[in-house]
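Comment thread on ticket #2218

A.B. wrote:
> Attaching the input chain for the structure job we discussed in standup.
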Amino acid sequence: MAGHVDGEAAMGKASGKVKRLPRDIYERELARLQTELVTLQEWVRAEGARVVVVFEGRDAAGKGSTIKRVTEYLNPRVARIAALPAPTDRERTQWYFQRYVEHLPAAGEIVLFDRSWYNRAGVERVMGFCTQREYTRFLHQCPIFERLLVEDGVLLRKYWFSVSDAEQERRFRSRLEDPMRRWKLSAMDLESITRWEDYSRAKDEMFVHTDIPEAPWYVVESEDKRRARINMIAHLLSTIPYHEVERPPLELPARPAPKGYERSPREMQTQVPDHSATLGTGR
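C.D. wrote:
> Ran it. Output below, let me know if you need it in another format.
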């Protein structure tokens, strides 16, 4: 990205409390954008388009929650999430991009990568999970790989979620204290706090090599998750020339007259206990 400057390392100390987008405005606009995403989905299916959206950024930057809002009302057979685990011993011997290629969309599909092949330029680079030679090869091959995808007609969009060190630490503490979200934290996530500048340098170098005209990086400021979700979805929609697709009308058929069927007695089946009956009405 020409002239790109990474301000993440200093942002936490320089910025004050971020003003959150009011909930009513957020929910109203999110609903509108999600309606447009359904329209986009139907266009993708009708046109046989192939869409790839890459979500990258700091740990706790809001990638997962944004993906959740993008897919909330979409057909999982059309819009899939690819969140690959650590490579197996066999996959480590493959061409690096090979296991990601298996998850690319066919005609009429959208794939959202919750982290992607850019693991090599981020966590693998910083944590020493790849060699210098493997890293250098990645920086050379990645632009070629992405140009091939775009040349073949894939609509590739890449988003980097940017968050300050102070806000990241706040979110980590919140997860640590919440038993419902503690699973989101790993030892490697926590170590990223001590390696903040290493990740900043790795990200800057990655942008230098992979922010190409055919597949540019788009930076999403994510201090306020509500604004980040709205901004990212609105931008994605603005970059794809979709339109409303006419769908065949559907009508509920008349229910046929009964022909003597009788349901088998409930006591012949194993019923789920009525746990709800043990609860108060809340009134």
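A.B. wrote:
> Thanks. Noting for the ticket: DSSP finds ten helices and five strands in the chain.
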